[in-house]
Structures are given as C-alpha cells and as structure tokens.
Amino acid sequence: MAEYSFSTSLSLGEKESRLVKKSVSPDLDSRHEKRSRVEINTDKKNIVISIEAKDRAALRASVNSYLKSIVLSEKLRRLFE
User: Fold this and answer.
1) How does pLDDT run across 42-59, given as a tens digit for each residue?
2) Are the beta carbons of 73 and 28 closer than 8 angstroms?
3) CA-CA distances (angstroms) from residue 36 to 4, 12, 19, 57?
4) Which residues constitute the domain of residue 59?
5) Distance CA 44, CA 56 (A)
6) What DSSP string runs through 9-42?
C-alpha cells in the first residue's frame, strides 16, 4: 500500500506514553483508513508513530491529524495533573 511513509518517536515518559496511546487509539480504526494506515506503539518512555499512505496528501493529513491529537492529549493530561 505505502508509497509514502512517516515514522517518529516521541519521548513522553512511560505513564504519559501509555495515556497518549490510549487516548488516540480509537481514531486508529476510522481516520483516513482508505488511503493511509497508522500504527502507534509504546516503547518504555516513548510513543512510536508509523504512518503509511498511498499519496502525499493522505500522508500529510494523517501526520497532522495524529500529531494534533497527541499534542492535545498531552496538554489535557498536564492540565488535570
């Protein structure tokens, strides 16, 4: 499927990585599913995001969408600490 791909690892801390993954996971089955595939994993203190897409527009949309969701999730976590 993937002509284009993006992968990154964000260091958030073990607890924070699990919480962020849990908060973004419901979107994995619904967003951009026809043109891209997203996988999110945690590795100790890191959250690892891998995105594959059929075209650049789908890749950009998925990257922006998931990064915004992760940033929002982390901001909300800090707000309610």
Assistant:
1) 988 899 999 999 999 999
2) no
3) 9, 25, 24, 10
4) 4-79
5) 31
6) EEE--HHHHHHHHHHHGGGGGTTTTTTEEEEEEE
Q: Can you give the CATH number for the domain in which 47 is found? A: 3.30.310.50
Distance separating alpha carbons of residues 36 and 4, to the nearest angstrom: 9
Nearest to 2 by CA among 26, 38, 28: 38
Our count of domains for the chain comes to: 1
Place of tokens 């026809």: 34
* Residue closest to 52 by CA, chosen among 25, 16, 28: 28
Reported pTM? 0.82
Q: Which residue has the tokens 């994995």?
A: 28
- Of 67, 69, 60, 71, residue with least CA distance to 36: 60
